[in-house]
């Protein structure tokens, strides 16, 4: 009981305080090999994946040379260690005893080698998948990059599929992701600054931008906010997003996240800054504007008249996604005179047997729809079909036939559902879906007046919202409507984005 | 934290405000009785009978056997004015009567002849009424009978009358039109007319239909007469209300009948006062194309077309002249708005005339000039069934 209570009671933590007492590893490498080994043994106690490999070289005339190779077998590619470290040690043909640094320079055929005298660096790089080479009677260590964890191959991002356009997506490894960006932009002006966040996870976070295109003050602001983050662990870029966004209480995302390298590249070219986080394929882009939520990467890959048409469809459906159910509820319960006679009679026929008020009916269906959507995401793929059958048949047909829900509401809710899916940015669509419920309440209590109030409130909120100092409604000015109302031809867009 | 709590509390209180005060006029659609049409008739005791037709929503979608179900029903009540009768009907209806979807109001002929001022006012004062509602006179019958008639096309029978009026083939007058012309100077209001039509073969009510039957001429809110179909088509043109029309004319020398469809008509009225006499020139212009040619003429020839034009113009002129003499002599009602035109063109003279206009109007000298241009001769010049020799070129 006591233990349970202790387990449940979380220790409050003040910002700025370290997560837990740090291990005392800030010691110098000793010249005694055994002492070093002992120290590392203590630090990595109970870590079954640590390997200590002693190599002794005694070839004829020379003094015996003794090395200790240490690595975490879960992180390294053992082939690298075998071929590039151990082999060169064992088959060494040396006239005299070599100092460690000279040995490494001459005989180790690995790519990245660092030297240190501090145990702290050793521990850090061990955890990054380096192999550590220590030599007898030398107070220094060589750190050889040998990491080789398994990673997923590049796949088409499942959350942002395109018909035309590049099909590679980010993966969980930040190095690969950086490579995907470098591949697209072969310029040294593409800067990628790395910081390590998360006291326990030590996650690598990379801030990427194009020097000279991105606004310097924006870069500074982002770095400042990122460096302020204090947390034990970062498991996804969502952690970083919540820490650095401007207004945490807004339903609208203020930082854009994507799995597509081409989107990141395009945004970088427009002067934005992106944040790559290790171990997640989702890359953040800041600042974000409302229009970014309505633009799909494919808009730029198909010919412009088609892209423009598709955009208009999206503009239309974003309104449907917010306002269709509220409008239905408001008009059928407050403004029956607005509906054409034949339509009002057919709606009345459909509602004849329905016991609920229109507001409750619409809310019920919306909530069921949201549940179906959520279930569709969480379910194992094998039973996904069962849910869609149950959802479509039970909700769509049986509920209407049983007279519990009227057919017009089913139609409205399904149109709304489809409308929300036309929004290309998932996080933006989420915000829109959330807004539907307060709007529904306003419509059900105040009618069209309530819808107008709600619309004004949304408009006020969006126009006062800022993402890293950039107004959310940004480029609504006549000159920049070229990429909003229409998607003008690529050749007609001759101006660089302003980088103040 | 405290700040946030305060904000949440405020939000909660605001939400209560919505729930406590918001829904006062919320009505579910299935708690409403949709009135599709009303009728005013005169009762034997001299009071008004208000009848309303209420649509019955067809419950239970999906199940097939709804064919036998009634689509509407009619409720009536007698009252000394419109709202009293309306309240009496509300007491019979379990759902709240909803007037915004009413499309037509019928006035029984006998009520019309007695005067309709008492029943009309409620439509102007009550905000639940719609001024776009059509208003019609039921020729030789009661409005209630029209309401009870089943019409095969529409779900609710009165909708069919709305559609008929929308076709613009006859005079279609809404409450708004009626109020405007009744309150204007120098014009008498008119209304559309509907007539029950009994199928002589079937004695059953099911075979009873109705048709548009001319124009009702009102004067001082009283029905003074009803124009027949021929007079009505003249009236439409002379009053510049014609949207489209068909004109037939018999060619001289017994050659046959030619029919045209008008697709653009224009009327111009010029008034003139000479001493004591009012002179009015009506200029009627029309464009149309031939749709029927029962003569032996090849109407694609300009010569023949001119002949046809001449004959048609003559027939229209006669039609309009007849109409004007009816208005002037028989009904003494200025339904064409000659007085209004006079007022517009000679406002000072009108001031002297307006009090005696009732006597001056029948004396006014009206000349009619028709200018018709036939733009197309249809798909064929001469009738196709004749051989070459029979055709007059």
Automatic annotation (TrEMBL), chain A:
Single GO BP term: spore germination
Please give the start and end residues of each transmembrane region.
Answer: 312-334, 410-428, 440-462
Query: One Pfam family this chain carries?
Result: GerA
Coiled-coil annotated residue ranges, if any: none
- Keywords assigned: Membrane, Transmembrane, Transmembrane helix
Lineage: superkingdom: Bacteria
Question: GO CC terms for this protein?
Answer: membrane
Leader peptide range in chain numbering: none
InterPro entries assigned? Spore_Ger (IPR004995), UPF0353/GerABKA_families (IPR050768)
Similarity annotation? Belongs to the GerABKA family.
Task: Spell out the protein name for this chain.
Answer: Spore germination protein KA
Automatic annotation (TrEMBL), chain B:
Protein name per UniProt:
Spore germination protein KC
Q: Where are the membrane-spanning stretches?
A: none
InterPro entries, sorted? GerAC_N, Spore_GerAC-like, Spore_GerAC-like_C, Spore_GerAC_C_sf
The alphabetical list of record keywords is: Germination, Lipoprotein, Membrane, Palmitate, Signal
Protein family (similarity comment): Belongs to the GerABKC lipoprotein family.
Q: Which residues form the Spore germination GerAC-like C-terminal domain?
A: 214-378
Gene Ontology biological-process entries:
spore germination
Q: Name one GO cellular component term.
A: membrane
Keyword set includes Membrane: yes
State the organism's lineage: Bacteria, Bacillati, Bacillota, Bacilli, Bacillales
Localization terms from the record: Membrane
Whose protein is this, by species? Paenibacillus taihuensis
Annotated Spore germination protein N-terminal domain residues = 25-195
Which coarse location class describes where this protein primarily resides? membrane
- Cite the PANTHER family for this sequence: SPORE GERMINATION PROTEIN B3
Membrane topology, from the record: Lipid-anchor
Q: Note whether DNA repair occurs among the keywords.
A: no
Q: One Pfam match, by short name?
A: Spore_GerAC
């Amino acid at each position: 009981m006591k233990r349970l209570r202790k387990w449940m009671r979380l220790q409050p933590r003040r910002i700025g305080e370290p997560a837990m007492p740090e291990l005392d590893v800030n010691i110098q490498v000793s010249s005694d090999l055994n002492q070093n080994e002992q120290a590392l043994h203590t630090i990595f106690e109970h870590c079954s994946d640590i390997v200590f490999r002693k190599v002794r070289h005694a070839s004829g005339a020379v003094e015996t040379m003794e090395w200790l190779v240490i690595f975490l077998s879960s992180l390294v590619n053992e082939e690298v260690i075998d071929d590039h470290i151990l082999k060169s040690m064992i088959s060494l043909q040396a006239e005299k005893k070599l100092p460690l640094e000279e040995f490494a320079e001459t005989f180790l055929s690995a790519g990245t080698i660092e030297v240190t005298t501090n145990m702290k660096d050793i521990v850090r790089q061990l955890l990054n998948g380096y192999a550590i080479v220590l030599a007898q009677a030398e107070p220094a260590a060589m750190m050889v990059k040998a990491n080789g964890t398994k990673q997923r191959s590049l796949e088409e991002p499942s959350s942002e599929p395109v018909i035309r356009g590049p099909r590679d997506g980010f993966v969980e490894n930040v190095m690969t992701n950086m490579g995907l960006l470098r591949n697209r932009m072969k310029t040294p002006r593409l800067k990628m600054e790395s910081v390590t966040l998360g006291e326990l996870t030590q996650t690598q976070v990379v801030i990427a931008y194009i020097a000279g295109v991105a606004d310097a003050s924006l870069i500074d602001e982002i770095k400042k906010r990122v460096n302020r983050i204090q947390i034990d662990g970062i498991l996804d870029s969502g952690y970083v997003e919540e820490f650095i966004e401007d207004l945490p209480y807004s339903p609208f995302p203020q930082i854009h996240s994507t799995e597509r390298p081409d989107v990141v590249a395009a945004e970088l070219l427009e002067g934005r800054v992106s944040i790559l986080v290790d171990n997640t394929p989702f890359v953040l882009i800041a600042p974000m504007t409302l229009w970014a939520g309505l633009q799909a990467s494919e808009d730029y890959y198909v010919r412009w008249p088609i892209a423009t048409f598709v955009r208009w469809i999206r503009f239309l459906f974003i309104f449907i996604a917010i306002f269709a159910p509220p409008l239905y509820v408001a008009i059928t319960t407050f403004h029956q005179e607005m509906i054409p006679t034949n339509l009002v009679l057919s709606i009345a026929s459909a509602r004849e047997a329905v016991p609920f008020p229109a507001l409750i009916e619409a809310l019920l269906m919306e909530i069921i729809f949201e549940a179906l959507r959520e279930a569709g995401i969480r379910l194992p793929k094998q039973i996904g079909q069962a849910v869609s059958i149950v959802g479509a048949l039970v909700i769509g047909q049986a509920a209407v036939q049983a007279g519990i829900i009227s057919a017009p509401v089913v139609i409205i809710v399904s149109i709304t559902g489809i409308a929300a899916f036309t929004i290309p940015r998932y996080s933006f669509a989420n915000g829109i879906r959330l807004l539907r419920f307060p709007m529904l309440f306003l419509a059900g209590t105040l009618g069209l007046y309530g819808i107008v109030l709600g619309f004004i409130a949304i408009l006020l909120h969006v126009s006062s919202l800022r993402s890293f100092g950039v107004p959310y409604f940004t480029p609504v000015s006549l000159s920049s409507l070229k990429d909003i109302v229409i998607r003008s031809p690529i050749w007609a867009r001759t101006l660089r984005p302003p980088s103040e | 934290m405290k700040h946030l709590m305060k904000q949440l509390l405020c939000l909660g209180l605001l939400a209560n405000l919505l729930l406590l005060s918001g829904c006062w006029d919320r009505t579910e659609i299935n708690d409403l009785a949709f009135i599709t049409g009303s009728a005013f008739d005169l009762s034997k005791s001299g009071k008004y009978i208000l009848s309303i037709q209420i649509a019955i929503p067809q419950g239970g979608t999906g199940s097939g056997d709804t064919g036998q179900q009634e689509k509407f029903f009619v409720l009536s009540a007698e009252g000394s004015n419109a709202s009293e009768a309306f309240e009496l009907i509300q007491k019979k209806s379990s759902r709240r009567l909803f007037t915004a979807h009413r499309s037509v109001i019928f006035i029984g002929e006998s009520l019309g002849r007695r005067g309709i001022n008492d029943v009309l006012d409620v439509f102007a004062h009550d905000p639940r009424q719609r001024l776009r509602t059509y208003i019609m006179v039921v020729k030789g019958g009661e409005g209630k009978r029209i309401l009870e008639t089943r019409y095969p096309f529409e779900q609710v029978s009165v909708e069919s009358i709305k559609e008929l009026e929308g076709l613009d083939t006859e005079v279609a007058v809404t409450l708004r039109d009626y109020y405007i012309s009744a309150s204007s100077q120098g014009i008498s209001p008119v209304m559309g007319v509907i007539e029950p039509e009994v199928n002589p073969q079937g004695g059953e009510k099911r075979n009873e239909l109705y048709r548009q039957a001319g124009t009702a001429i009102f004067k001082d809110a009283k029905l003074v007469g009803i124009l027949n179909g021929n007079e009505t088509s003249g009236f439409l043109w002379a009053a510049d209300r014609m949207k489209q029309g068909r004109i037939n004319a018999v060619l001289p020398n017994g050659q046959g009948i030619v029919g045209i469809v008008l697709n653009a008509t224009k009327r111009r009225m010029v008034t003139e006062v000479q001493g004591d006499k009012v002179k009015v020139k009506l200029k009627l212009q029309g464009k149309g194309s031939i749709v029927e040619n029962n003569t032996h003429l090849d109407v694609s020839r300009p010569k023949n077309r001119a002949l046809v034009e001449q004959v048609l113009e003559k027939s229209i002129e006669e039609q309009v002249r007849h109409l004007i003499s009816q208005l002037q002599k028989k009904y003494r009602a200025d339904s064409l708005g000659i007085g209004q035109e006079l007022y517009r063109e000679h406002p000072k003279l009108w001031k002297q005339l307006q009090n005696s206009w009732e006597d001056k109007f029948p004396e006014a000298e009206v000349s009619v000039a028709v200018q018709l241009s036939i733009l197309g001769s249809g798909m064929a010049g001469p009738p196709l069934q004749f051989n070459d020799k029979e055709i007059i070129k």
